[in-house]
Amino acid sequence: MNILLASSEAAPLAKTGGLADVCGALPKALAQLGHEVALIMPAYRSTKKYPSEPTGVELRVWIAGREVRGTYRKCQIPEIGVPVYLVEHDMYFDRDGLYNNNNEDYADNCERFVFFSYAVMEAVRLLNIPVDILHLNDWQTGLIPALLSIYYRDYPEYQKIATLYTIHNIAYQGVYPASAMALTGLHWKYFNWLQMECYDHLNLLKTGIVFSDGITTVSPNYAREITGNPGGCGLEDVLRSRRDVLWGITNGIDMDEWNPETDPHLDTHFNLETRTEGKLECKLALQKQMDLPQRTDVPVIGLVGRLTEQKGFDLAVELIYQKVAAGEDVQWVLLGSGDPILENRLRELAAHNPQNVAVSIRYSNELAHQIIAGSDMFLMPSRFEPCGLTQLYSFRYGTIPVVHSTGGLVDTVTDLTPETEKDGTATGIRFSHADMEGITWGVNQALDVYRNRPELWKKMQDTGMNLDISWRQSAEKYVELYEKIRRHQPRQ
């Protein structure tokens, strides 16, 4: 099969979150299954540090009555493993951030990704890319299925293309005033409640859902959640109307990058047999780096992610305040950035409690690896979590995840219960409510097992480290869906 993935970001070229991890890893896994795969994304400023070559091909797009020109570059990134086409237009993409600056969205985001959508469609023709499956991701590519159905389907090179649209986080929908419909180049008749309009606004995520041949999201449980309220964030009705072509496929991880035996970010490597000694060394190294007292006997709880209420960091901050005030012997290590209020509260916590709390307000892939390897448990109190990746990374390093029972965290973390303890399948602790009572219960449960039931703790570590969470099995499920939607005539 010939597969073209379109995404607004892909690691390591450009990243703001899990979308980049997926779109940087899935193409390689698909290619390893024997398929012809390519990736197309914008040529952001961050992509320019990677070697690429011009294709010599220019595209011309009409947006709101004016001609906009761009070009394509091509590169081969070992981590991605397939050809990558970069859509070049410096006015749109050569900026400090991908979608915003100083936490404010760019005013022309709709126009930028309308241009990108046309550039993806034109690439098929201009670059002679054979495509059976066009795999699209999130609102930034939501216009593409509509363009294919309305404008491009009559051309020979487009007639057999089927579209699969993946929703990575339904909270981000690409919603713009009705006047933005003019930017799309599509007739106003499509601005209706059944297709592109939602509450008197243009909704690009809804557009992708309506016009695609198939829809996926990044875990089976999240696929169920988004067909109801509040999980659907206002789109639950349209998703229910397309339930027959909606599937959930849990993300995998790059087992080479996240490998405690070879991780270049760690001074001490370990495997299942050497885990106990290796993790102690990693804990001591993490404590030293974060200026915490170096102690092997104290439990270390790690947190990495965007400092937002969605990720539950407000609950985590309050819990840390309570635990520190109570004098509980626990060390907390946090890495992330986001809400300025949460950032300041964390800095304050660390400044007043240097024996127990260490904070790094930034993004660092290297430190993320070190926190996951050196922590005893990893806390994810997300209010909603489409899939989650850090709990999967934690399994690889023998770090027990403590998570809220939502989205993909339900699919991936087997809760410790009397039944799962007996059959040896438990891999973590899940708490049912994203509130102070829930997070406190979850952390206390984990601390109790860590302190008082070391053999059970080791068994849970073993079970997690033995899991097959590679991209291969996820890629195989995507291929099954590609074949399923190809068997049906593309929707007109």
Topology overview:
Blueprint: E1 2-6, H1 18-32, E2 36-42, E3 53-63, E4 66-76, E5 83-88, H2 90-93, E6 100-101, E7 104-105, H3 109-126, E8 133-137, H4 143-152, E9 162-167, E10 175-177, H5 181-184, E11 197-198, E12 201-203, H6 204-211, E13 214-217, H7 220-225, H8 236-241, E14 246-248, H9 275-289, E15 300-304, H10 313-325, E16 331-335, H11 340-352, E17 357-360, H12 365-374, E18 377-380, H13 390-396, E19 400-404, H14 407-412, H15 418-423, E20 429-431, H16 436-452, H17 454-465, H18 471-486
Parallel strand pairs: 1-2, 1-8, 2-5, 8-9, 9-13, 13-14, 15-16, 15-18, 16-17, 18-19, 19-20
Antiparallel strand pairs: 3-4, 4-5, 6-7, 10-12, 11-12
Helix pairs in contact: 1-18, 3-4, 4-6, 9-12, 10-11
Would you give an account of this structure?
This protein has 492 residues and is an alpha/beta fold. The chain has helices at residues 18-32, 90-93, 109-126, 143-152, 181-184, 204-211, 220-225, 236-241, 275-289, 313-325, 340-352, 365-374, 390-396, 407-412, 418-423, 436-452, 454-465, 471-486; strands spanning 2-6, 36-42, 53-63, 66-76, 83-88, 100-101, 104-105, 133-137, 162-167, 175-177, 197-198, 201-203, 214-217, 246-248, 300-304, 331-335, 357-360, 377-380, 400-404, 429-431. The strands form 4 sheets. Strands 3-4-5-2-1-8-9-13-14 form a 9-stranded mixed beta sheet, with helices on both faces. Strands 17-16-15-18-19-20 form a 6-stranded parallel beta sheet, with helices on both faces. The chain is globular and about 70 Å long.
